[in-house]
Amino acid sequence: MRAWPVLVGIALWTQAACGQADGDRVAKLDAIRTTQHARFVEQLDALHRDVDTLSAPDKRYLRFLDGWEANYEGRYPDAEGIFRDVIASTEDDALGTRATASLMNNLNQQGRYAEAYAMATRAGDALPGVTDPLARFVLLANLSQMLTFAGQPEAGLDYAEQMLKATPAGQSPCQAMVQKVTALEGARRLTSHSAELLQTIESCSADKQPIFADTMSLILVDRLLEEGKLDDARAAIDRLAPVVQASQYYPHLIDLAAQRARLFDLQGNVAEARKAALATIAIGHAGDVNEALRFAYRILYAIEKKQGDTASALDAYEHYVIQDQGYLRDANVRNAAYEAAREHFHAEKLESEGLSKENHILRLQKALDSKAVETSRLYITVMALALLSIVFWLVRTKRSQLRFKWLSSCDGLTGIYHHQHFMSEAERELRLLEKRSGDSCLVFLDLDHFKQVNDTHGHAVGDAVLKHAVAIFKGQLRTADLLGRLGGEEFGMLLMDTPRLQGSVVAERIRVALAGAPLVIDGAVVSFSVSIGLACTDITGYDLPRLCRAADAALYRAKHMGRNRVILDGDGFDSASLHRA
Asked: How far apart, in whole angstroms, are the C-alpha atoms of residue 520 and residue 525?
């Protein structure tokens, strides 16, 4: 998904936790953290000089503000230690909740996703018990942001909706609206006309919160570009440019430059597209991995390739691959950390519930022994066994039903659709697309020299390779896309609402990701590649058999031309030829 949660996360964390001035010096200081930051730093130093006059709760409050300032300045390890001290020592549940939410964000900024999502999972479970309005608002904000960032936009959207309802009196709804729009963007449910997006821009602008308004405006430009409304996108970029330049907010500066490059590229203005792409790269920092640089290098690669500058094209392509793989790797780590944290928490909860039930049974047994009612004890035992037998039978029956249902539609090895179900679903989706004139691409993929993997390493390793390949495929697809195993080492994908150019980009990204992620098993490194054939509805139409024949023909050409390449039906382009050059 796009990097909007990163932009929103930085701004939201610095804005959402403002306290209300109530006459207390520390609370008044808390209230001006983001509106008058220079004054806040000055008064923070002054308050430290008078720290001996503060009560114990106010000292803990001041400690929390020290952590906030350290995090704001990017001193993440210092801020982490302070937040942990506040959580361990505070007697104020509201302040402890705010420190917990801040620590989640801090760990996320440091790339320590396992710890961050472990905390987020526990915080989400404890959310019903948080009654302080401000603390609940802050916790909901961070949970929404982190789940959206972990590729769980629907869960992030649910927390954003709760955040809207829990907005404290006097607090702007802008921040909650921003989280909702970010989650909707992550779920690919926004258009340039979406009321949620336009209303959020208007609300944040009216409340004088430019960072949020600019983030939403950048999302609007992205939607306009995706929808091909280039004149509207150009006008939006021109309106946004002076505001972003005035704020000098780095994520907005580089993203706006990348969007300008995309605009010129889509307009066919090669000179300006190249100029804007180079400007984007110039803004970036050494070692940065982000979506803006990824777009810039991709555009440069296409321009240099078209102009015949092979050396420059190869250089741009190498940088593009670094950005693409780095972004994919970071996204996969976040997703894996979230899933691992959730499974670990559920396991702990089940274990705790099991111990609680066991203790209850022991207490009951002790009570029965003390009363020496042997017949009652026997009766309870018989009833318990009968109940367990019924529950066991019900669970086993339900599991069998679910297993049969799953086997009827999915491949037993990889867990994705089998051939018949994939074709059935693809035909249904194509009929729906045809009614609304949507674009789609059918992709056939075949793992190269897979028989050699089986012959060399054995069928167990071959099965592991298939599962590994499916995991990489899933990481590149959206929820709405279809994925199925057509047989052996051949797979099929139906990319929904995907025009021809975007489909070729997705296919190439899959090819590069698979080639760059060999399977390491039992100390052996198993490298493999994939040949890809792609057919799109804009040329072949919506008839599934025709699409299959076209995609299969393109796949045959890819394998015939040397494998490890993408071939489009009716197009001779393949990326491997550039590598050979």
From this structure: 5
Length in residues, the chain: 581
Which positions ≥6 away from 320 have C-beta within 8 Å?
294, 297, 298, 300, 301
CA angle 509, 512, 518 (to 5 degrees): 135
Phi first, then psi, for residue 109 (nearest 5°) are -65, -35
Structure tokens at 491: 């797979």
> Rounded to the nearest 5 degrees, what angle is found at the Cα of 377, between the Cα atoms of 372 and 383?
170
E strands present in 382-512: 417-418, 440-447, 482-487, 490-496
pLDDT of amino acid 162: 85
Cα separation values, 217 from 210, 212, 225, 234, 259, Å = 10, 9, 12, 12, 12
CA pair distance 315, 301, nearest whole angstrom:
8
pTM above the 0.70 mark? Answer: no
Phi, psi of 354 (to 5 degrees): -65, -40
Residue at 31: amino acid letter:
A
Contact (Cβ atoms closer than 8 angstroms) between residue 341 and residue 117: yes
Rg (CA), the chain: 28
Query: Closest Cα to residue 509, out of 343, 326, 356, 387?
Result: 326
- For residue 488, the tally of other CB atoms under 10 A from its CB is 12
Q: Angle between the 133-149 and 174-186 helix axes, to the nearest 10 degrees?
A: 20
What is the tens place of the pLDDT at every residue in 227-278?
Answer: 999 999 999 999 999 988 887 777 888 999 999 999 999 999 999 999 999 9
pLDDT at 441: 96
